[in-house]
Design brief:
This protein is of the alpha+beta class and 97 residues long. The protein contains 3 helices and 4 strands; from the N terminus they run βαββααβ. A 4-stranded antiparallel sheet has the order 2-3-1-4, with helices on one face. The longest helix has 17 residues, at 16-32. The radius of gyration is 13 Å and the shape is globular.
Length: 97
């Protein structure tokens, strides 16, 4: 079974209080759906049309887990904590088998 990934690039993460509230809520979602943080930070280098923006990669044991985590009630609450200032490019991607 192929793994699933959340790949997130923050266009704006300037609201530190919202980010803190989100972080407090998302940990439980990751534990419930077996998500593992692989990457979280600003890129060391960017190329082509890349931007120096916070990037996060979360690995799940399956694509189904990644989708279920995103669509669960707890994650909906975490997303709401981000408010309207935080802007992200959020993708769910299937890994190789």
């Amino acid at each position: 079974m192929a793994k699933g990934y959340w790949v997130v690039s923050y266009r704006n993460d300037s609201d530190k209080e919202s980010m803190k509230a989100y972080g407090a809520l998302v940990g439980g979602v990751l534990a419930k759906y077996e998500g593992k943080r692989l990457v979280a930070g600003v890129p060391a280098e960017v190329h082509d049309a890349g931007e120096i923006k916070r990037t996060v990669v979360i690995e799940f044991p399956s694509l189904e887990n990644a989708k279920a985590a995103y669509n669960c009630e707890e994650y909906t609450k975490a997303k709401e904590a981000l408010g309207t200032i935080i802007q992200r490019d959020f993708r769910i991607v299937e890994g190789f088998e």
